[in-house]
Structure formats: structure tokens, C-alpha cells
Amino acid sequence: MEIVKCNEADYEILAGIWERSVMATHSFLRVEDFNEIKKVLIPEYFPNVNLYAISDNGVYAGFIGMGPDSIEMLFIDSDRRGQGYGSALVEFAKRRGATKVDVNEQNHSALNFYKAKGFCIISRDETDDVGRPYPILHLAL
After folding, report:
1. Domains in the chain, start-ordered, CATH in brackets?
2. Residues 70 and 103: beta-carbon distance below 8 Å
3. Which of 36, 72, 84, 131 is deepest in the core (most CB within 10 A)?
4. For the segment 14-34, what is each residue's pLDDT rounded down to a tens digit?
5. CA-closest candidate to residue 37, choices 18, 60, 64
6. DSSP-derived pairing of the beta strands 100-104 and 70-76
């Protein structure tokens, strides 16, 4: 396993990982919301975070998007879940100063994953950052 910095040339590969991951883990997401997020993923979300992919034998298994002190996104390809890639990316982010992460309240597996990594719920918003009906839990170390 190797963690590599991503750039614009990686965006399409990362978007594919995002799509497969979300389809496997976000059953609560309405189709129209999924399509809306997918449409802005590359032009709006990816350029605003530091992206790193975890590579296994030259193939990206997942990726993380980071802010100065936060994990902004973490997605593991649907057929690579449960193999340690997410744990490796979280440890990578923690070593780089990440102390916060937001999680959809309905994504129980992600919430349990982050709790197992030492994160605790500190607050809750009723909607996501653009007002969609998906409560967000704010976690911190």
C-alpha cells in the first residue's frame, strides 16, 4: 500500500471510486441528490481539498480529501472495503493534523468506523451544508 498525492489527472478515477462507494454505503441518499452531488464533485469539491489516494499494486483502492485540520471526504472502492485502506488513510490524515470529520447521521458504518478511530460526536446539524435533509454529525478527536 502506498498513499499518493492526487491532481486533476486523477479526478475521473476518484469520481468513479466515489460513485461506487456511495452506491454501496449511502442507501439513504435520494437519486436526485446523488446526481446533484456527482455533478459538482469534480468542479467544486475536489479542487477545494487536498486529495490523496491509497494505491495497491498501482490501482487506487480509495481516497481522502483533507482540509487544514479535517477529513473532508473519505471513500473506499466498493470492492475494497474492510481491507484496511480506510484505516490507513485516517492514520495518514491524523499524522497531518486532522482532528475533525463530519459524517452523515444515516451512515452508521462510517460513524462506527470513526468512533473506533477515536473520534467523538461534538455536535449535530439537521441538514447537510446545502440544506438537504441529511443530518450531519460533527466529530472530533
Report:
1. 2-140 (3.40.630.30)
2. no
3. 72
4. 999 999 999 988 888 999 999
5. 18
6. parallel
